[in-house]
Amino acid sequence: MSTSWKAGIPAPSDDDLNKCVACGLCLPHCPTFRVTGKETASPRGRIAAMRAVSEGRAPVVGDFTVMTDECLSCRACEAACPSGVPYGRMIEAARAQTEAVRTGPGKAKRRIITGVIARPRMLRAAAWGIATAQVLRLDHLLPSGLRMATPRITFRDLRTPLPQAAGEGPVAMMLVGCVMDVAFRPVHQATARALVRAGYRVVVPDRGGCCGALAAHAGEIESARTLARERIAQFEDADIIVVDSAGCSAHMNTYAELLADDPEWHARALKFETRVCDAVQIDAPGARLIEGRVAVHDACHHLQAQGIGPEVRRTLRQAGATPIDLGDGGRCCGAGGLYAALEPEMAATLGEQKARAIISTGAPVVAVANPGCAIQIRAHLEALGSDVEVRHPLEIVD
Q: In terms of residue numbers, what domain contains 185?
């Protein structure tokens, strides 16, 4: 059978494509479909397009690339699907195809962002530049969408040291990561203290390292595989591997699938995945009792990809807080990895919806366990003139 897929590049498999029966139960859960009402902006429509490419009835370039670019990869459709369609890996494989044929400024922009993020020294240098630009308010010269997607980075945070080894018990090694390392080090500090309270010996690698999630979501599969191998080698001596970013913990639980074509690394990845733990899954007592209402934003890579949600609320309740659901069914905030920078209009619509849902709770703080979500939500809360604080759940109870 003829196909339009580029040879030698991952592509959605026929077995995965055939699992979709086009029932449409995914439609009300898809954020882009809810905004546009267009079939081409729905999971069903995108899978139909994948099938057309697979059968040689449509090319990878053109409309197909636009359809895959507009997807948030939030996987809400996957959680709602009664047929078990593995949409997450399908859209990543489809993007591997589009990236293989993409040309022009769009490709360069993606490569620059993911290339900087994957290199700790380059990322840290860029972070100092961003912090300087923000102090001088030069960031206001950026297009609105790119400015909203840029993390707020302070000199104080950049000077905050990584947590030092502490505690007794099984060894819990923490992922330093990329964006978390330069913009959210206080979260690392709070996570390390929670692990010590939970009875672990905390070990933090003295060098950073991206997990590869952003590269995988952008279709840069070989880069994602390289980063997966680096992280596996870095953490193989740990009893548990603790990750305080929802997107990173979700992605690190897919390393075996990502490295399935390499028997040695696939076997190592399977062992690795059994030790990966999101930080909110650690049952640690709070450092202090807190009172009051805390709104809870469920990151897509918690709720949809890992089934994590109750753990965040348990952590807050144990510390005396009252967690408040947003009432939007866990809808995506529009961050989507690089999505807010690459698809600013849709991201802005979803970001404002999420910010208004948070404000409507009346809570003074919102718990957010993913850096992309935190950047997006904080930017839109501020744009609406709200003073609601955005904090990681472990920061709140620390």
A: 160-281
Per-residue model confidence as pLDDT tens digits over 9-49: 999 999 999 999 999 999 999 999 999 999 999 999 999 99
* Residue 287 belongs to a domain: no
Provide the number of structural domains found in the chain: 4
Task: Give the number of other Cβ atoms within 10 Å of residue 103's Cβ.
Answer: 8
| Contact between 305 and 278 (Cβ < 8 Å) | no
Measure the CA–CA gap between 318 and 283, rounded to whole angstroms.
10
**Residue 268 maps to which CATH number?**
1.20.1050
What is residue 270's three-state secondary structure?
Answer: helix
Q: Give the dihedral sign, CA 160/387/369/374.
A: negative
- Residue type, position 234, single letter: Q
Q: Is 195 inside a domain boundary?
A: yes
- CB within 8 A of 233, min separation 6: which ones? none
Q: Is the pTM of this model over 0.85?
A: yes
Q: How many residues are given for the chain? A: 398
Helix, strand or coil for residue 188? helix
Least Cα distance to 15 among 65, 40, 61, 50 occurs for: 50
- 217, 213, 248: which is closest to 92 by C-alpha? 217
Q: Dump strand ranges (E) for 341-393.
A: 365-367, 389-391
- Please give the pLDDT value at position 1: 59
Both tokens assigned to 373: 């979500």
The C-alpha torsion from 296 through 299 and 303 to 304, rounded to 10°, is 150
Indicate the residue among 62, 85, 101 that finishes a domain.
101
